[in-house]
């Protein structure tokens, strides 16, 4: 394995981790917006309790992705951020607005006008941000962004308003909604747990339908990507992902609450992994491969040497944070009613 391929793998893992952890946070905002029924406020309160300790921390995976692109693949970083600055700016605005709104909502007077408005900002930003990130994923896949060297020729609106990018935006939303609801079934009890179980089942079915529909849409709108879908590795990854999705649906249907969160996370990791395999060797479809976009070999190797050193500090810290705020759940104790 070349150093460049290893670094591209790290970028893919960063996308996976951000989807599995940050995606659940965005999903919490989606379900806050869609909260309904006699336990509407209880649903929102349970989501806030689950998100509160970790929502800022989960952006570390986005930072890892950006740093990897900036340091190891500067040509891809420059092109992607120039070609897709509109959806990326919207996503960044959504992250900032969502964080500020959550803080006002979480620490302010819940009955105040500010708290009610903050809930709306938090919820809508939680919808907008993963959708625009999905547009970006779709845009780098479609092959409609034209590049000459590191100069973008196709303008600021190429790629991300295409049908396949829009489907990817929808998939981004459904991934977040599915993860949040599946994670919450292990963090709630009684009728509230049943609310989240039903939402997780609905989101799982919708995600399965959307990812299946993405295949013919890719054949129509993203030729380079679609041509890799018959690769044995990609077919295998999609098959394993489908099995994981069915297993997660079974766990939810049969009320195996402890199994639902890890199976949901594994399903989402499979979706991202299959996409990454189908995208290889491109970072930007039909324009930049990871070999062509890479920095000097010494820079790539130095990054690969430095990353495990930083991980020795970061990974145990993250594990301690997640364990600290999940230990009641792991012990089978009730967190939210």
UniProtKB/TrEMBL annotation:
Name where it's found.
Answer: Cell membrane
Topological relation to the membrane, as annotated: Multi-pass membrane protein
Pfam families in UniProt? Cyt_bd_oxida_II (PF02322)
* Domain of life where this protein originates: Bacteria
Transmembrane portions of the chain: 6-34, 60-80, 86-107, 119-140, 160-186, 198-220, 232-252, 259-278, 298-322
Keyword terms, alphabetized: Cell membrane, Membrane, Transmembrane, Transmembrane helix
List the InterPro entries.
Cyt-d_oxidase_su2
Q: What is its main location?
A: membrane
The record's family statement is: Belongs to the cytochrome ubiquinol oxidase subunit 2 family.
- What is the protein name for this chain? Cytochrome d ubiquinol oxidase subunit II
